[in-house]
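Q: My labmate handed me this sequence with no annotations at all. I'd like to see what the chain might look like in three dimensions before we decide whether it's worth expressing. Could you predict it?
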Amino acid sequence: MVETVESAVDIGLIPSTADELFLQPERHGQVTILFDKAGRAKAPPGDAEAHRLRLCEELHHHVMKWRLYEGYFRKEIARGRGVDAFRMYQSMSVRPLLAVLGMAYRPARWDFELRYIHEEFPPQIAEAVLRLCYVASPEELEGKHAEATVLFERTIARIVCVSLS
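A: Here is what I predict for the chain of 165 residues:
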C-alpha cells in the first residue's frame, strides 16, 4: 500500500558563500526561513523582463540546437552504437523539447526539465513526454523522434518572444 504525503518539509543547508538561495517565489514557491544567522535569506524582487529576455535567448539556443543536432542519433545507429544513439536522442531531441514545452506551459520554471510535468503540463502533453522518454530499442528512435519533431514545431509556434516595453 502506498501512503499519500499530505505535507512535506524541505530542508536546505546553504553555505554562506552560495550565490543561489532558491528564494524566488515565482520559481520555488513560498519559503519559510527558520534560521538565518547571516540575514541573507530574503526573496529578491522579481524581474519579469530579465526573465523574459533569458527565456527568449534560451528559446533561440534550443531551436538552433534542435535544427543542428536533432538527427544525430541516426549517425550512432549507423555505427552500431545503440547506447550512443539513445544518448544523442535524449540530449539533442528530448532535452530541447522539454525546454520549449516548459517555455510554453510553465514559463516561470521552463528549465525544470522533467520535474512536475504531470502537474504543470496539460495531461496529453505530459503523456507524450512520457512516451518519448521510454525507448525499448534503437529501432524505436526514428518513430519517437518523428513524434518529438511534431510536438517541438507545434510548441515553438506557440511561444511569442517580443519586447514588453
